[in-house]
From TrEMBL, chains A, B, C, D:
InterPro entries: Beta-lactam/transpept-like, Glutaminase. Substrate binds at residues 63, 113, 157, 188, 239, 257. Its EC number is 3.5.1.2. Keywords: Acetylation, Hydrolase. Coiled coil: none annotated. The gene is glsA. This is Glutaminase. Belongs to the glutaminase family. Gene3D superfamilies: DD-peptidase/beta-lactamase superfamily (3.40.710.10). GO terms for molecular function: glutaminase activity. Signal peptide: none annotated. Homotetramer. It catalyses: L-glutamine + H2O = L-glutamate + NH4(+).
Amino acid sequence: MDIDRLLSQIRTEIQPQIGRGRVADYIPALAEVAPDQFGMAIALATGECHGVGDWLKPFSLQSISKIFSLALALAENEESIWTRVGREPSGNAFNSLVQLEYENGIPRNPFINAGALVVTDHLSGVVDCAADAVLQLLRIESGNPDIGYDLQVAESETAHADRTLALAHFLASYGNLRGDVPTVVDEYVRQCAIAISCRDLALAGLFLARHGLRRDGSRMLSPSQTKRINAVMLTCGTYDAAGEFAYRVGLPGKSGVGGGILATVPGRCSIAVWGPGLDNRGNSVAGVAALDRFTTLTGWSVF
Amino acid sequence: MDIDRLLSQIRTEIQPQIGRGRVADYIPALAEVAPDQFGMAIALATGECHGVGDWLKPFSLQSISKIFSLALALAENEESIWTRVGREPSGNAFNSLVQLEYENGIPRNPFINAGALVVTDHLSGVVDCAADAVLQLLRIESGNPDIGYDLQVAESETAHADRTLALAHFLASYGNLRGDVPTVVDEYVRQCAIAISCRDLALAGLFLARHGLRRDGSRMLSPSQTKRINAVMLTCGTYDAAGEFAYRVGLPGKSGVGGGILATVPGRCSIAVWGPGLDNRGNSVAGVAALDRFTTLTGWSVF
Amino acid sequence: MDIDRLLSQIRTEIQPQIGRGRVADYIPALAEVAPDQFGMAIALATGECHGVGDWLKPFSLQSISKIFSLALALAENEESIWTRVGREPSGNAFNSLVQLEYENGIPRNPFINAGALVVTDHLSGVVDCAADAVLQLLRIESGNPDIGYDLQVAESETAHADRTLALAHFLASYGNLRGDVPTVVDEYVRQCAIAISCRDLALAGLFLARHGLRRDGSRMLSPSQTKRINAVMLTCGTYDAAGEFAYRVGLPGKSGVGGGILATVPGRCSIAVWGPGLDNRGNSVAGVAALDRFTTLTGWSVF
Amino acid sequence: MDIDRLLSQIRTEIQPQIGRGRVADYIPALAEVAPDQFGMAIALATGECHGVGDWLKPFSLQSISKIFSLALALAENEESIWTRVGREPSGNAFNSLVQLEYENGIPRNPFINAGALVVTDHLSGVVDCAADAVLQLLRIESGNPDIGYDLQVAESETAHADRTLALAHFLASYGNLRGDVPTVVDEYVRQCAIAISCRDLALAGLFLARHGLRRDGSRMLSPSQTKRINAVMLTCGTYDAAGEFAYRVGLPGKSGVGGGILATVPGRCSIAVWGPGLDNRGNSVAGVAALDRFTTLTGWSVF
C-alpha cells in the first residue's frame, strides 16, 4: 500500500469538510485557532511515519491526553485504578455530574472528565507530576523533545475551570480524590494543554497498535492492558458519539476539543488527524471524515 | 394561655423522644454534642419570651441561618435575588447537584444548599460580609451581643467542605456565583457555624410573626416579603420532609442539622426548639415532636 | 364582610386577566372551551354560598377530582394508602416517570398523576367504582344531583391516554397497582371528566374548611385527616408552582387543567374559581389572580 | 485450526464457570431452567458448523432476537428507523424509562427494550408480523424449519409485561409507536420467546460475519449495514457491561437473559454460546468466559 498516495487521496476527498464545524470557543486561546487547517499522520507498526497537510503543526492535545495518563497509570501496574473508575459508556455529557451523584462518585469511565481527574489523581500518587509524566512519554515515543505545554491555553483553561473544580471537589466529597483539589486540577489542565503535531501524536500512540510495545521495543503495557485501552477508546472515546464513530470509522479512537483524534488499527498502525472545526458532539468534522475514508479505502475497520 | 405551663406540658409529653434519633456526624464538632438535651422557647409578638429545658444553651444554627441571610437580602430591596434562585420545593436531597444540572444552575429554592450559596453570594454584593451581617441581625433582634461563631464548628466544616465547594464551583460554571468561590463558601460556612440559644433564636425570628417588623418596631421587610419567607419555609424548610412537617406541625418552619428548628405562627409568635437527635431526613426528632404537640394543644396550625 | 361585594370587586380587579393564558389543548374537548369565561364561588362554613360571573356554569373538574378520591380513601379509614404513596412535593412534572423509577414505584404524593392512579386503585378496592363514588360525593355535598360526567371529555381523554397507561403499567410493574390497568385508568379518566360548576365545587369542598364535617353535620374525616389533605394541597396542589401559589395566595389549593381551582380557608370557607386560560405551569391565570386578590382583600392567607 | 479441539479445550477450561450465576427468575418459565448446562457452536464463514456440549438443545432467544428484527428492518431498506431510535450506548438499565423521558421518546439504541419495541413496531409496518418474520429468518438461515416459539415462555412473559407495556405506551405518548400497543408488545414478546439451539443461532447469525451475505449467497444487508449492526452490538449488546465485554472478549456480541450470546468475528465466523446462569448485569457467566477463552486462544479479538 502506498501510504502517501492514500493520505493524499483522503485529503482530496474530504476537502469539502475542512473548515466545517465550530471551533471550540469556551476559552479564548482555542477560539482563535484558524478553522481551515487539516493534518493527518499514519505511523506504521514498523515505526515509519507518513503525513499530509498540516501534519507537523502543533495543536492542543486536550482530551486525547487521557489515553496517555491512563496508559501510564496502568504501566505503573496500577490496576487498582479500576476500583476508582468504571469502564462503561456513560450516556451522559462528558462533564456531567448527574451520573456521578447517582453512582456515588465512581466515574463511568476514564475518558469523561471526572474519570480523567481520578486517573490523574491516581497517577500523581506514583509519579512526581502526572502532567510532566504524560509530556515525557509523548516526547520519548515521538522522539521530539520539543513538545511542550501551551501556556496560553493552560492559563485560559485555569481561568475557566469552575466546572472541573466542581467535578474534582465532588469526587473528593465521595473520597475518590486523594490529592489536593487545586493541584490535581492543575495537573489535569496542563496535560490537556500540551501542544503536539499529528506526526508526534501518531508516533506516541503507536504502542496501542503494537500490543503494548514502546518504540524502542521495550514493553510498556501487557497485550491485555493495551486491549483494555483500545476497548475503552472504541466504546467511550468520542463523547456521546461513540456508537456513530464505531460505525463510521470502526476503530478505537479518542478525540479532543482541540480538533485532534488518535485512532488505532491494532497490529498495523496508529493514526492522528487534526481539524479544528467540531461537530455538535465535540468531534472534529474533518477528522472523523478522514478516518471514515481511511477505513473505507483500506478495509481496516475492526468490523 | 399560660405559656410556661404549656411549655412544661409539651416537655413532659415529648420526654420519650428526647435523645432519640442520630446526632449529625459528618463533622466531629457536631458529632460530640450530647444527644439527650432539649430546649424550647416561645417569643410572643409582644416581645415577651418564655422557655423550658436547655433553652438558654447555645447550639449550632446551621441551615436555620438561611432564613436570616434571605431576609437580609430581601431587606436590602434585593428582589433581583429571585432571578437567581427559585421558590419551589426540590424533591431532591438538600445538597444534590442533579437538579442544578438539569435546570442550568438555578437552584430550586433558597433553602437547599445551592440556593443558600446564591443568597450568600448575592448578599455579599450589598454588605461587607454576609456572615457578619447575619450575626449582627441575630444579636440585635435577640438583644444578646454575645452570640458568636463556633470556631471549632467552622473549622470542622471548612475541612469537610468539598461538597459545598463543588456546588459553588458548579454554580460559578453557570455564571450564577459572582464572588470568589472560596470567599463565598467561607461566609456560608461561618453563618452556619453561629452558636445560638432557643431564646435568642425565637426572638431573632420574631419579625416573621410580626409581618416584617423588627423588635424595635422599625420595618425590616414588607408584609408581602415576610409572607414570601414564611411560604418558602412551609414548602421547603425541612428538607425532604416538608409535606410531613406541614401536616404534623402545620407551621412555616426551618430546621438545621444542629438539631434546631425555627417556626412561625403568623401574627402570634415565634418558636425555637432544639434537640440534637435527627430523624432520617435530618430534622430534630424531639423538635418536630414538640412543635407537633404545640399546634395540637394550641390549635395554632395554619390548616 | 359583604361577600357579594367582595366577589364583585375581585372580578373587576382581575378583569384584565380573564381570557389570558392558554386553554389546555392536549385533547380536542378541552381545546374548544371559550377562554374569556370566569366564575368564582365562596361557600362559607355555615353552608351559605355566593358567586360571581360564570359561577353556575359547569367546567371540567380534571385534577381537582384528586382531592375527593383521596378524601374518600381516607374516609374509608384507609390510612394504609400512605404506604403506597408519599406526601412530599415532587419537583418534577406532574406526569413524570423519572422520580417513580428512582423511588421504585412509590409516587411522591397523591396529586401527581401516578399518585392519583394509586389512590383511585386503592379506593377501587373498597368501593364499587372509584369514579362513581367521587361523583356521588360531589352530588351529595353540593346538593346538586345533576352533576355528571362529560362523556366527550372522557372519550377524548381515553383516546389520548398513553402517558396515563404508561404510568399505570409502570406502577403495576412495581406491584403498586392492584386492579386491572385499563379499569383503573378508565375510572381515573372518568373522575377527571366530571363537569361541575364553581358553586357546586365550593360546596363540595366545604368539608375541608369544616375540619372534616360534611354539609349535613356528619363527620366525613377527622380533623387530623382534613389537615393532612389541606397540607398536601398547599405543598403539592398546583403542579410545579406550589411555592409560588403558597406565596401569592397563601391557601391550600388544588388546580386542574380544566381551569378550575379549589381553595380552603380553614375554619372559614371554601372557594372555587374557574378561568380556562392556563399559565405555563398549568394553573388558571384568572383563577390564581382572583385568589390572590381574595387573600389580599380579606387578609385570610394562612401566612 | 482444529475447531473441534478448540471447542473441547474451551469447554474444559471454563468448566468451573458452568452452573455459576443466577438463572433469570422474573418469569417462572425461565426460572425452571437447569443451571448446569452449557453449549457452544462456531459457524465458519464457509457455512461449516461445529459445536460442543448442549449445542443442539434449544434455549430462549430473548434479547438476541433484537439483532434479527433490526437486520430485517434494515434489509427492507428501512434506514428511516434511525430517525426513531439512536445508536449510542445508554448508560442506563435496559428497561429504564428515565432516558426516554429526558430525550423525548427516542430510545438510545435498538438493543435496549424501548429501542427494540420501536424496531418491532417499524418492522410491523413493512411485514405482516414482525415475530413471524424473525422466526422465518432464523429457520431459513439455520436450515432448521423446526425452530418455533416457546409458548410457555411467551405466556409467562405476557403475564409479566407491565414494564414492557409501560415502555410501549410511553413511546406512544411521544408519537414514537405507530401500531396498536398490545399488538406491538405481543409481537415483541413472541420474538423473544423463540427457542433456538447454539447450532441454529450461530448459523442464523452468519450473515453478520459474511458482510451481509445470507447462507445461500444472496445479499441480505450491504456491508455498511452489517458493519452498523456489528458496531451497535459491540457498543450496546451486553446491557451495562458493553465496555467490560469489549475488553474481555473484544467482539461484537449480543446477549439475552435466556443465557445465550451471539458473537461475530467479522470475515471469519459466527459464535453462539449458552449457559443459563447470569452475572449481575444479565450476561451468561459461562458464555462470557467461553468467548473470553475463544479470543484469547485464537487471537481473533478485534483489538
